[in-house]
Sequence to fold (206 residues):
Amino acid sequence: MEQRLNDDDLGVFQDALLGWAAVRLREMPWRATRDPWGILVSEVMLQQTGVARVMPKWHAFMEAYPTPADCAHAPLGDILRLWQGLGYPRRARNLQAAAREVVVHHGGEVPQELDDLLALPGVGPYTARAVLAFAFELDAAVVDTNVARVLARLAGERLTAKRAHAGLGNGVVVEPGTHGVGGDGVPTHTVVRRVSVGVVVCMARR
Fold:
């Protein structure tokens, strides 16, 4: 049965979430920027690698390749050497391929249309929406497994892998109201805090 949160309920939820995160939110360098390329790089690195391993590599990568053009024109071997330690080197190959697409088809600027982002090599639905929300502050539903756990607790439903990847389908519908961005009517900083709650509190049961 579909559950809806009205603006009042959403406000209470957001206030509680922001209060929890105020002293617990992990500091990550890509949260301090709205650079679409830097955020895309972080999201690709984080696809299958933990934050602790990604942080130093993200700094090194952004220093070496601060723009899509820098990455697009770099020798692949150099990129792969820098990527060592993150695992899954195919992501590095895809990232360079995506950078080349950005240079050739988008004038060197990461696009801010969902379809254009999804057309980039190695960019899936979550990564594309994360770039839209975190870099461009556009209305994009950013729902990974961690966010889905939070929404499942909010809805009082069991979380399955299928529903997590589907963003809970119609299980939780939030009225947009005037709360900003994030695809379900919540601001980007609230989306970030949902992810944090999902990681730290709403852990998967074994």
